[in-house]
From TrEMBL:
Belongs to the CpsC/CapA family. It is found in: Cell membrane. Signal peptide: none annotated. Its main location: membrane. It comes from Neobacillus bataviensis. PANTHER family: FERRIC ENTEROBACTIN TRANSPORT PROTEIN FEPE (PTHR32309:SF13), TYROSINE-PROTEIN KINASE (PTHR32309). Pfam families: GNVR (PF13807), Wzz (PF02706). It is a multi-pass membrane protein. The chain crosses the membrane at residues 20-40, 174-195. This is Capsular polysaccharide biosynthesis protein. GO terms for cellular component: plasma membrane. InterPro entries: Bact_polysacc_biosynth/exp, GNVR, LPS_length_determ_N. One of its GO terms (molecular function) is protein tyrosine kinase activity. Residues 3-94 form the Polysaccharide chain length determinant N-terminal domain.
Amino acid sequence: MEETISLKELLQTLRKRLSLILSITFIAVLVSGIVSFYFLTPIYQASTQLLVNQSKSDQTAYQYNEVQTNLQLINTYNVIIKSPAILELVIKDLNLDMTASELTQKITVQNEKDSQVVNLAVQDTNPKKAKEIANKTAEVFKTEIVKIMNVDNVSILAKAEAAKNPSPIKPRPLLNIAIALVVGLMAGVGLAFLLEYFDNTIKNEQEIEKLLGLSVLGVIATMDDTDFKNSQKKQARNAKVRGEIIG
């Protein structure tokens, strides 16, 4: 016969293992909070915007084909911005103690769909350095793209600015703690059901009736050494009393 588990049994299992579930959840939250606040290095971000437009001569209005050409160029520009030809100049000008490949990991370049605006973001443990790298990269790219592609169609829309009290973009301790809470709770519940599944011991007469399909006729009570000694003393007293009555 196929074994089924009722909702009541599931709730009983959760109730029985509640201390285990809460312990695992608490440990997960505690570890996440300690790591987020004391071990993870805060990362700050600075962003600047570039506009890719077509150089104009006598025309006064943008044509559809020109816009499409600019949009196609953006993908090429996104690659050039993070190329050694640009980043090595940035490293030299700012006297950075890193290689071009290491600097590449700090820079993110992207643009919105069908937009001629390129967002250049830099992440660093120092907010001031992030701002300097972002602005310098934009300036170097604007200058060098004229030599690389023989075009002059890049403008800097907005320079990166550093706030007085900048907030790191990561880590996010509250988010990490919330995730740890959910993961710890799921792990605790999963472990509780796993332990219950592998627990083959019979704990009460109800489980015997369910397992064998037979009614329990009697139960032998457990007795420790103290109860056993007290029982013997009681029996001895009763025997003595009976002997005195008979005598």
